[in-house]
Write a structure and sequence with these properties.
With 429 residues, this protein is of the alpha+beta class. It folds into two domains: 174 residues, no CATH class; 170 residues, 2-Layer Sandwich (Nucleotidyltransferase, domain 5), CATH 3.30.420. 39% of the residues lie in helices and 18% in strands. The chain is globular, with a radius of gyration of 26 Å. 24% of the residues are buried.
């Protein structure tokens, strides 16, 4: 299997400067190659320049500018050109599919944060042993950089990437032939429902609280953003204080992102240790957080009717703060390594369908937390009902893999003829 390892770099002050120069020069190469493609298409009879033609020019570019381009790895510069080529390939695919094209744009130095080395030993060498405090990675033009290696690297290293996140630097290793590490079997299945009030709810009735990392840092973040916005426009990007204020905002967002990812890893690992099969809704986070369409006012041309954008913005913020999409991606990756199964089911009406009689209606969902069937009168926690319906929809696949724990099954779990000790109706609500 393929796995990525990410470690924190601990460069010296001089190495930090050199790493910044490496990103700057690769960014300049990327933008120059993009400008060449634009000019060729506009001025030379719509000529398309490909990666092979630009890669051939690298020798001349390195010889012309040895101080900025000639000092870096040739293969890493080729990887930067391939990155641009992939952007154009995706652009033309969207054009042919009739989607919004999104023409590749020039990269500012603040938005170009990664340099890829396609092969270990070619411009970049990983020189590390597990749990060795002297772990190093050698980069051409920079030297040996200390690495905080918190776990051993398994498999064969394919590519090495150096990435900047705020003021921190990381090295990412993409490895193949990584042996799986299966966990002991439990013969237990579970359904989970992702939410906003609760991070997730299981079909056993357990609620995992939403940590709300963004809300916890809201006051500090708002103060930092107000301070950043207080600088006059004419002094922006030229003042040391302005750069410090921008760095503080970046640092807060970076901390929130790391907290969210850490919580996703720990929660996913806890589920995989207890359950062989996990069923969840197939979430479309981009669609869930899409801005409502504008509603023109037919009586007043040029005016628009209220469309709930302000209220939807708060809900979108809560959905993104919960990080459901990040969690499900982490869960799938960990499940592959642990030998577990993860099943995605159709999310439509999972919280509006009665698990006892199957009646589906919008009126069944009284509030965010309460469910009451208008047909049979069954009442329970709405998130618990949704998690149960998720498990029921995955029943056909689950029956071929494992079976639910009899002593913790509940009366409104359908499709399991061998459930012998049901939980009292509504006890988990």
């Amino acid at each position: 299997m393929i796995r990525a390892y990410k470690f924190l770099l601990r460069p010296t002050a001089r190495q930090i400067v050199a790493l910044g120069e490496m990103l700057r020069d690769h960014c300049s190469l990327y933008n120059g190659a993009l400008q060449e493609r634009r000019d060729a298409y506009r001025h030379v009879s719509k000529t398309t320049v490909h990666y092979g033609e630009q890669s051939v020019q690298l020798k001349e570019i390195r010889a012309f500018d040895p101080e900025r381009q000639g000092r870096w790895s040739f293969s890493s510069q080729q990887a930067t050109l391939r990155r641009l080529d992939k952007a154009f390939v995706a652009f033309f695919q969207r054009v042919r599919a009739g989607d919004t094209p999104g023409y590749p744009r020039f990269k500012g130095i603040g938005h170009f944060n990664t340099v890829v080395f396609p092969k270990d030993g070619d411009g970049c060498r990983w020189d590390a042993t597990p749990h060795d405090p002297q772990t190093r990675v050698r980069l051409q033009g920079i030297g040996h950089i200390r690495v905080h290696q918190h776990r051993p690297v398994r498999g064969r290293i394919k590519t090495i990437s150096v990435k900047r996140e705020g003021s921190r630097w990381y090295v990412a290793l993409a490895c193949d032939q990584v042996p799986a590490e299966p966990l002991p079997g439990t013969d237990v299945v579970i359904g989970i429902d992702m939410g906003v009030e609760h991070f997730l709810t299981t079909s056993d009735g357990e609620h995992i609280a939403n940590p709300q990392f963004l809300n916890a840092a809201a006051d500090e973040l708002a103060e930092a953003q107000r301070h950043l916005a207080s600088f006059p426009r004419r002094t922006r990007q030229r003042s040391k204080k302005h750069r410090a204020a921008a760095h503080k905002v970046t640092r807060i967002y970076s901390k929130i992102r790391r907290q969210r990812l850490d919580h996703a890893h720990k929660t996913a690992l806890a589920l995989l240790r207890d359950y062989d099969v996990i069923a969840h809704e197939r979430l479309n986070t981009a669609g869930m957080t899409r801005t409502p369409k504008i509603k023109p006012d037919p009586e007043q041309p040029g005016s628009f009717l209220p469309n709930g954008t302000a209220a939807k913005a708060g809900l979108n913020r809560s959905i993104l703060d919960a990080g459901g999409g990040v969690f499900l991606a982490v869960l799938a990756n960990k499940a592959e390594s642990a030998g577990r199964s993860v099943i995605a089911v159709d999310p439509r009406n999972t919280s509006r369908t009665c698990p006892c009689c199957g009646h589906t209606a919008q009126e069944n969902r009284i509030t965010q937390a309460k469910f009451a069937c208008t047909a049979c009168g069954f009442a329970a926690n709405a998130d618990h009902v949704a998690a149960t319906n998720v498990l029921n929809r995955a029943g056909l696949a689950l029956c071929n893999v494992a079976k639910p724990r009899p002593q913790e099954a509940h009366a409104f779990t359908l499709g399991w003829s061998h459930v012998r000790t049901p939980r009292p109706v509504g006890a988990a609500g």
